[in-house]
Automatic annotation (TrEMBL):
Protein name: Winged helix DNA-binding protein
Matching PANTHER family: LMO0824 PROTEIN (PTHR38479), WINGED HELIX DNA-BINDING DOMAIN-CONTAINING PROTEIN (PTHR38479:SF2)
A family per Pfam: AlkZ-like
InterPro entries for the chain: AlkZ-like
Organism this protein belongs to: Saccharothrix ecbatanensis
Classification of source organism: Bacteria, Bacillati, Actinomycetota, Actinomycetes, Pseudonocardiales
Length: 342
């Protein structure tokens, strides 16, 4: 099958609810929420006006804070739990890989030792470390202390059913308001949902997103060509309306997943996806055209858009609308939005 990048992006925008008809569709993947409220922003630009009400914030994919539906957590825990040494190695970085059984030791310790109803990351780490073997609590030169391997710690909070507070720059853990349901049996769905909501992709893109090591179970995939490049697809790419004329997205928004060349030229990609401090992505007619940032002053949030003077017509109006949406998400209607040249 031969496709164009424009067809793929139109399909992606439609199935991800960017026309406002299904704002919660992307919750099947989870929505990155780091810094806090970026997840609410991703849902807000898709038309979700109730913010994060009814959603839970946890450390999930790649150990990063995500927003999920509570009912999705049992299946998520089962799919992210390492089943092989290679999968566990993906969470260990440069540290030696402990036995798979050590994961359950950490999970049990977290359930048993969580101090109080809430605890900082340091408090939880200090509570569980003394009772765990050194193979899973190696010496960390950066912290100058023994503690659970960083991403193993993050994964185990999810497996233990521990949630995150929605606000605050620092990670604060809390006991769930309801008893966590056991890990749900069933077919793997994360990669299938990725393929459905992202469209044609390369396996390396999906594994980078998943962050859980080589996968043994992939959905049925078939080769397609997009702008002459070979990718894989799970479902047909259906005809869809053009993407919105203008979007203000954070760099980890679900729309920007998959092969990066489909959404941005290399020089633009280098401006958006940086090792530290990535700005927002200005998306015009489906592709990343530039960057933006924001700052608060009193009751005004100012969006500084690089190349704003060159944004014309429907795209200019759409970006202004997006700024109003984000101001509403962040300020509960108490903020005004202003868009200026960066």
């Amino acid at each position: 099958m031969e496709l164009t990048g424009a067809q793929v992006l139109a399909h992606r925008a439609a199935v991800q609810g960017l026309h406002g008809d299904d704002p919660d569709a992307v919750l099947a993947l989870g929505v990155v929420d780091s810094p806090p409220k970026t997840g609410a922003a991703a849902l807000g630009v898709r038309g979700r006006r109730e913010g994060t009400e009814g959603l839970v914030r946890v450390l999930s994919l790649r150990g990063a804070p995500h927003l999920h539906r509570r009912e999705d957590l049992p299946a998520l825990r089962r799919q992210l739990r390492p089943r092989t040494e290679k999968q566990l190695a993906a969470w260990c970085g440069a540290f030696p890989v402990p036995d798979l059984a050590h994961v359950d030791l950490v999970v049990d310790a977290m359930r048993r030792e969580l101090p109080g109803d809430t605890a900082t990351k340091g408090e939880l780490s200090a509570a569980i470390t003394p009772g765990l073997p050194e193979v899973v609590t190696p010496y960390c030169a950066g912290c100058k202390a023994h503690h659970v391997i960083e991403n193993v710690f993050r994964l185990c909070t999810l497996l233990a059913g521990i949630e995150l507070e929605h606000q605050g720059a620092k990670l604060t853990f809390r006991r769930p308001t309801a008893k966590p349901e056991p890990e749900a049996p069933g077919e793997p769905t994360l990669l299938r949902d990725y393929a459905r909501l992202v469209g044609p992709f390369a396996k390396a893109d999906a594994e980078k997103w998943l962050g859980a090591g080589p996968q043994d179970t992939w959905p049925d995939l078939r080769p397609v060509r997009v702008d002459g490049k070979r990718l894989l697809a799970h479902e047909d790419v259906r005809e869809a309306p053009d993407p919105p004329a203008g979007l203000l997205l954070f760099p980890r928004d679900p729309y920007l997943l998959g092969p990066r060349h489909l959404v941005a030229d290399p020089d633009v990609a280098r401006q958006v996806w940086r090792p530290v401090g990535s700005p927002g992505a200005l998306v015009l007619h489906g592709r990343v055209a530039g960057t933006w940032r924001y700052e608060f002053s009193g009751r005004t949030v100012t969006f500084q858009v690089k190349g704003w003077s060159k944004v014309k017509g429907a795209a200019r109006g759409a970006v202004k609308d997006q700024a109003e949406v984000l101001a509403g998400v962040w300020g509960a209607g108490a903020l005004e939005a202003n868009v200026v040249e960066w």
